[in-house]
Structure formats: C-alpha cells, structure tokens
Amino acid sequence: MSSRTSPIGRPITLRRAVARDAKRLTRLVRGSGAYAGKYAAAVAGYRVGPDYIEAHRVFVAVGADEHGGRVLGFYSLVLAPPELDLLFVADEAQGRGIGRLLVAHMQSEARAAGLDRVRVVSHLPAEGFYHRAGAVRIGTALANPPAVPWDRPEFEFRVS
After folding, report:
1. By Cβ atoms counted within 10 A, which residue in 48, 80, 133, 137 is the most buried?
2. Strand, helix or coil for residue 131
3. Residue 44 near residue 30 (C-beta atoms within 8 A)
4. Which of 124, 125, 111 lies closest to 157 in space, CA to CA?
5. Cα–Cα dist 108/157, whole Å
6. Is the bond preceding residue 146 a cis peptide, omega within 30 degrees?
C-alpha cells in the first residue's frame, strides 16, 4: 500500500484490490459517464468479480473522507500478454490527477514484473487521456459486434 497526495492536496492511497472491492468496482464501471448513450451497452452487464481481482493485478485509488475512504478509481494489469485491461476513475473525481497516478503506478508494477511494454485498447472517449499520459498509438482494434460495435484506438505504454 502506498499513500500519495493528489494534485488537489487530498491524500490518496493506492492499494491492491481485494474480493470485497468487487461490487464497488463493478458499480464504477457500469456507472461511468464515459459509457453513457451509445456506449452504455458495452458495460451494461460487465462485472468485476472476486475471481478477476484474484487473477490479475488490480489496484484501487482510495480517497480519505468522512466515510473512511472511497474508491476513486482503479486499474487492472494483465501480465500475459501485457495489457492494461481496465482503468476507470469515478466521474466526480476526474480532472484531479488520479488517472495519472494510476498510470504511473501501473508502469511501476509492469517494470517490477519485468515488462517493457503494456498494450491498452482504449475506449474512444479516453483516447486523449492515454495520449496525454504518454501512451503511443500503435493501431486500431477492430469492432467485435455485438459486444463492441465500433473500432477502438490501440495504444502502448513503454515502461522500461
């Protein structure tokens, strides 16, 4: 577990996700404003289960508040093949540097695991974020209807 101060001065703790986080992470994914409208079907039935948390390196950003901390965002790093599978920041917490903290932590975890690159297939509205976070566009992931009926930008983080 590591503590950092967010760019807005509030303490944020990054910790490994545990099984009891599964419902909160699922709610964060399904409630994401980035998946409103035409994108809603992509996450409507999505579930981050305890089995997923156990199988991958899932880390959560928790902010201190009067309720003892709430999940502000999370990411999931898959080691083989190396991929940033999920990265979400709560709508109300966006623009505060939490996404950048999660990316920096992911890169550190990837380095520690001996990886030199991590691929990410971006959701279209997140394309600008990944570019600003230092990822390089490497291609396009083609649509996979009915789950994902649109092409998506594919990026790569170089972490060595």
Report:
1. 48
2. helix
3. yes
4. 111
5. 11
6. yes
**Residue-level length of the chain:** 160
What is the side-by-side order of every strand in the sheet holding 70-78?
Answer: 2-5, 11-16, 57-63, 70-78, 83-89, 117-121, 152-158, 136-141
pTM of this prediction exceeds 0.85 = yes
Q: Which amino acid is at 62?
A: V
Question: How does pLDDT run across 20-69, given as a tens digit for each residue?
Answer: 999 999 999 999 999 999 898 889 899 999 999 999 999 999 987 645 57
Q: Count of CB atoms within 10 A of residue 68's CB?
A: 7
CA 76 to chain centre: 6
Q: Which residue has the tokens 């950048």?
A: 100
